[in-house]
Structures are given as C-alpha cells and as structure tokens.
Amino acid sequence: MLAIFLKTLPFFAVIGLGFAAGRMRFFTAEATVYLTKFVFYFALSAMLFGFAANLDLSAVFSWAFVWAYFLASSLVWALVAAVALLRGAGPEEAVFEAHTGVIGNVGFLGIPMLTLLLGKAAVGPVLLVLAVDLIVFSSVLTIVITGVREGRMSLGIFRILAVGLLKNPMIVSVSLGLAWGATGWKLPVPVNEFMTLLGAAATPCALFAIGGSLAGRSAERWPVAGWLSVSKLFLHPAAVAFAAFVVFPVERYAAGVMVAAASLPVAGNVFILAQHYGVAPQRVSTAILISTALSVLTVTAVIALVTH
C-alpha cells in the first residue's frame, strides 16, 4: 500500500498546492473559475477526444460492466435518498443527497490518475463509468427536480435534458472521438499531436483547480455531509465491488478499474448543479471538502486492493 500511496501522493499534492494558493489569495476565486473553464472546455476535452478516437470500443464495451456499475450505484442512490426522506428532507434535497453519494470526480481526477496508475487499458472502463454518471444519473437528477417543481412530467423536461447533454463538452468530445474511432482511420499526425499537447495540460490544471475550488468552500451541515462522504468513499465502491466481482461476469481488470473509479471523492460539478437549482449547496460543498481530504487514504487503499 505504501508504494501505491507514494504514486497517488503527487496527484493529491497538486490539489493541496491549489488549495494553499487559494487560501493565501495568491490564486483568486475568479482565477480558479477560469482555470476550471480551460480544463473543462479545452484541455480535458482534448484528452477525452484523443483517448476515445484511439479506442476500440467493441473491445472494451461490456453490458455486464454497465449493468454492474449502474445497478450497484442505483442501490446506493436509493439508500441515500431513503435516508434523507426518513430524516425529514424534501424530495429535492433527497435527490441531491443521493446524487452526492454516488457521483465521483471521474472527469477531473479519475481519468488522469487512474490511467497513469492502472495503465492505458483503464481508459475504456473509466469512460464507461463516466458515461453512466453523465448520461444516466445526471438525467435522473434533472428529470426528478424539474418534475417536482413543475408538478408533472412533460416533454419539455426531455428537451431541457437533451440540450444539457449536448452542451456538456465531456459528452461531446467522447462522442466525437468514438465516432472518429469507429471509422478505423488514424488521426492525422498534426491533429493527434495537438490533442496530446493540449490534453497534457488537463491533469495538472484540473488537480490545481480542484484544490483552488476547495479553498473557497465553507463547511456546514457536518453530520449530513459526513454521511454523504461515507456513502461516496465506502458504500459506493463496496456495492460496485460486490456487483462487479460477485454478481456479474465482469472481466477482473475492468472490474478493478470500475471499483477504483467508484472510490473517487464527490465531483465538483455536483456543487455547480446544487447552486444552479438552489438545493443544499453548502451541504454538497462540505461533502466535497470532506471526501476529497479523506480520499488521500481511501482511494490509495482501494487502488492497492484492486491491483493485488
């Protein structure tokens, strides 16, 4: 485990550096916003497109993998939502707490870290996890919140959903990359080198931006946020591990990557959604802070387990 810890430490050290820069006001909140936009719309999108364009989807896609991750995540999602409702929370709060309990930082942290630590073969499984998170669970969140507020389900919800998916650069870049890869053509050398050069900026900039964004978060609702962090760091990967290794016939390497991805801390975009809808933003923010701090040890432990 020590060897894995030493490999993961540089990733979290860059997050810590961004956090320190934000705390000391050397890197302002506005600067963090623009760095995040650069990563989200340019660097990470280039990395994802390059990965997807050079990926043989037929070799990595597995319905057993998708069902294992989806059903295990759905079980934890339902559990967290039920706990929130039993506590007296409203349906909107329950949905956001459930979302917080299962959606990890796969884009900004998982893709660069897991592909480096677990090998380039991890790209396919990580992209499948990201696709389920973005397409399925983000869609469920949008549908439920909009349906509750409008008091009914309408076709307009699906229009909002479709526009939201098309505006997400991660979904667009992966889709375009897979479409190119399906042609069987190699990327032209200048294009491939451009994507590689731009994509190389994604890892350090994304990690620094995570730290910078954490520096501006205030901590409130510790008990609930602590429970959500436990759900994300412990219950979610445990449920995914049981589904992938015991219930479904998932190939063992892919199953290990899936569990490692499930062990990641709460994603920053959950807070963005919470702010957008005005539902429990401080609770989500605190869960991101707690889970990211604890993940230095928990993610290391999970990666050590799956690699052995």
Task: Offer a few descriptive terms.
single chain, 308 residues, mainly alpha
What does this 3D model show about the protein?
There is one protein chain. The protein has 308 residues and is an all-alpha fold. Helices cover 82% and strands 0% of the residues. The chain has 15 helices and no strands. It has helices spanning 2-23, 29-53, 57-60, 63-86, 91-102, 106-118, 123-150, 155-166, 169-183, 189-199, 202-215, 222-247, 252-262, 268-277, 281-307. Helix 1 runs antiparallel to helix 15 (281-307), helix 6 (106-118) packs across helix 11 and helix 6 (106-118) packs antiparallel against helix 13 (252-262). The protein is globular and about 55 Å long. The mean pLDDT is 87.
What is the rounded distance between the termini?
10 Å
Mean pLDDT: 87
Structural class: mainly alpha
Low-confidence stretches: none
Fold topology:
Elements: H1 2-23, H2 29-53, H3 57-60, H4 63-86, H5 91-102, H6 106-118, H7 123-150, H8 155-166, H9 169-183, H10 189-199, H11 202-215, H12 222-247, H13 252-262, H14 268-277, H15 281-307
